[in-house]
Amino acid sequence: MPIFSTKNKKYIESTEWVKQHSYGIESLNKCEDHEFDFLIEVLNNKRIVWLGENGHGVAEHSLLKSRLIHFLYYKMGFKVIAFESGLSEGYSSNYLKKELSIVEIMEKSVFSLWKSKETLSLFELVKENYDLNLIGFDFQPSVKQSLFHEYLEKVNMDFPTDFLQGLKKVEEGASFWYECIGSYRAVSKRIPRKVLNEFLEASKEIEDVIDYLQNTLNNLREGFINKNMDKEFAVIQKVLENKRHFFNHITTKRSNFLKIRDQIMADNLTWICNDLYPNEKVIVWAHNNHIYKNIKSSYKPMGSLMSPELEDQSYHLGFYMYEGDVTFDKKTSQKLNTPPKKSLEDYMNHTSTPVSFLDFSQLSSNRLNKWLYSPTVILDSGMMQTLIIPCEQLDGILFIKKVSPPNYL
After folding, report:
1. Which spans of this chain does the record mark as coiled coil (predicted)?
2. Same domain, 134 and 11
3. Fewest CB atoms within 10 Å of the CB: 2, 83, 180, 361?
């Protein structure tokens, strides 16, 4: 009995420690910029803020991130939002945003997983502010038909007709094969031999088109330089590079594909931070599983693949939840599993507000916060128990007690 009492006392004291060191938000629906002021000191010397989410179908995650980005833009000068979505889709829709409605920007830029009422305010913010830039860092297509062709038509360059037609063919081919092959991947089925052969034949033809496009672009390079359009040249070059990656890897074994995808996304984000927007503060929107840092296993997420220089400028903020329902495929609602005692979710659930923030980037280890420095259970996507060391994988936590499925548009 004394041993049990000692352990229980330590647990209670640890939950009290969490309460004392957390900041609360009373209402997610009504929160205003000043309610995020606790982040000013934490993020004051950071250039990159990684916003995770423990599942792509969580309304409150999207709403909280949208509110937080409003604060980061107006109060802290963050002017780039890098989404876990197609690079060309995000960039071209941002470039054309004056001509598009809020919903059209959403439809033409990010995966439909985030096309919901909860993100409307975010895309309204993007549309209304010329200096707020949206871009993707994924090499997979995120929409069925991007606006990159329309973007090129507005670039002040005399592209050959074959160049524009060739790029359109590549974009359409990527969208078609992403949907086709994805239909088998989504249900863990092997790609039929007939479909695979058709893809291999089509991809060979598209590879030839990409070769032509890259050669033509290189021949036009001097024209870009003379018109001070180095940025436009670099974007087109990066898009073609990403399309080649897509066709080279889309049929790769799933476990290998996941590694390759994170590496390419890390490379894209590095390019965004160092080359495309070297003087801007950047917000990264992605799943928790992509933003974890210091992962030492054979599979390293993009957050663990950044250079030491960019890592020093980064703050990794994981989003977690305790109870409620979520939607992972936009169709089926699922109830979250109950987190076990002494899990990350369990400790954070002892806070008094519906939403809470815990920073551990400036903490020192003690017996009451030992769980932050030890392998601790989390529920990945609110379902599957796994272990992380919070202080090694993240810099802070935003926690929502009760969640619900997004209101898709």
Report:
1. none
2. yes
3. 2
